[in-house]
Amino acid sequence: xxxxxSKILLFGAGAVGAYFCGKLAHAGLADVAVVCRSDYExxxxxxxxxxxxxxxxxxxxxxxxxxxxxxRGAADxxxxxxxxxxxxxxxxxxxxxxxxxxxxxxIQNGIDIETDLATAFPGHEIISSIAxxxxxxxxxxEVIHLDGGRLKFGVYPxxxxxxxxxxxxxxxxxxxxxxxxxxxxxARWEKLVWNVPFNPISVLTRSDTAQxxxxxDMVALLRATMEEVCATAxxxxxxxxxxxxxxxxxxxxxxxxxxxxxxxxxxxxRPMEIEAIIGNVVRTAARLNVPVPHIFSIYAMIKxxxxx
Amino acid sequence: xxxxxSKILLFGAGAVGAYFCGKLAHAGLADVAVVCRSDYExxxxxxxxxxxxxxxxxxxxxxxxxxxxxxRGAADxxxxxxxxxxxxxxxxxxxxxxxxxxxxxxIQNGIDIETDLATAFPGHEIISSIAxxxxxxxxxxEVIHLDGGRLKFGVYPxxxxxxxxxxxxxxxxxxxxxxxxxxxxxARWEKLVWNVPFNPISVLTRSDTAQxxxxxDMVALLRATMEEVCATAxxxxxxxxxxxxxxxxxxxxxxxxxxxxxxxxxxxxRPMEIEAIIGNVVRTAARLNVPVPHIFSIYAMIKxxxxx
Lengths: 308, 308
Hints:
The structure is a homodimer.
Chain A: E1 6-11, H1 15-26, E2 30-35, H2 40-46, E3 48-52, E4 57-59, E5 63-65, E6 77-80, H3 90-94, E7 103-107, H4 115-120, E8 126-139, E9 142-155, H5 162-173, E10 178-180, H6 184-205, H7 209-213, H8 216-235, H9 244-254, H10 261-267, H11 274-287, H12 293-306
Parallel strand pairs in A: 1-2, 1-6, 2-5, 3-9, 6-7, 7-8, 9-10
Antiparallel strand pairs in A: 3-4, 8-9
Helix pairs in contact in A: 6-8, 6-10, 6-11, 6-12, 11-12
């Protein structure tokens, strides 16, 4: 460990951000301040209460702010864990907190979610990361950790760095399983192979994973959709292993019935990350001339349902 | 007119059957008995009250029965206007009322809905027909006529006959716009070009026609689905005019906002005619090697939603 603790600002501190950065803070490995809007009062007063399968803990941020502009420190790492939704100018929202040395770390879903930041902050390292976790905010400042809890880091658009290595050391020390990869985009596409079919189809059909896997025609649709994601990934330069689709389907079949996060968002009247997860795949496929009729069918319908 | 009135038995007397056969009975052109289950008590007591855009009338059937076996007449025409749902053995349900001379007349949605009857009653003429009407049962024995009201008749699988001509004369005399066609299957496929996309998509997205037509991606999905229906129809020998898709879309765009019947069924917790309208198209396409990825996506999802 270096002598000085890392300074982290967490922007858009929902369940995912509170869990992971909370682990670092709780272990005394970093000073973590947070920008949060909806839960501001509660978090300011008593921090986050995080309960779950690996034990409960309280995460009291070093500072709690409503906007990035209120933060006066010089963060080593600015973690962004907000949802990826259209019409949100993320660079503008975080700009005030991006100091000369600040590394931006995205823990978000989807693809093509780094491009706005890369354009807005050309001199800054951007670390893209993927969370493998089931975690839910059940009340203001109250987070339940249900499943998983791994992280994967890589420099955007590719490579590793001393910063990714430092993050791996920090999270490892905090007991979070973590890996660095030189090809974070390949890992993003891997996650999309599952997310593109299961998230919107679960919403359109109001079904959990077990209900979807029970019908052979539905499994055929899931597989056809996954094949289109893999074809698009390959055309974009991030081919996936040939066995992946069958592995993901079999894993899902063997797992306990599960509601994808988009279905939980829908049931709770929250906006869904349709463009980051599905729309950007449709647009990538169109740019690369990959036919994706199944994905497009799903996309047009989930987008329409989201407008209701 | 011949001296004797035609004797008609109406099986599965919902809104569509009550409207059309009621017009004949009300005009004194036919003796119409009905087999109805859910509205039996009300209809037995006071007939059907049919209200709507062309004036209100009461249709008092010549007989009201719970099953076809209770009917003791020898019907000239047995009209079948029940819903087309899996697991219903229609030939068995009507067999007792099919006399030696009885012509079977189907007014139902979908394709491949005549095959079971043709197999079960090989010596009988089967007339297949399509209703162009917006009509709803709002309470037991209470029917509202909203829009349209045309019929098209043809012998199954093709041709016209003295019976189709007689039906045209009868309905014309009763004020119902009606036409005979030697290619009723082509007309069935024409209706599917609209029904296959609009019915299930309106349910999956909980949207009326105006909401669907407002989004260019959704219009692209509607068009792609219609193109697959047309390709399947052409492979089956019932090619549609090249202009049809654009015409149907423009007609829908110009029409007042409208909830397809499948959405109304879904909202009222009634079973949807998924197999007759969509599943049979998917199966026809598979048999003829026509790729229908958009239709299949919609089919797998509406089928799953219907199981909830």
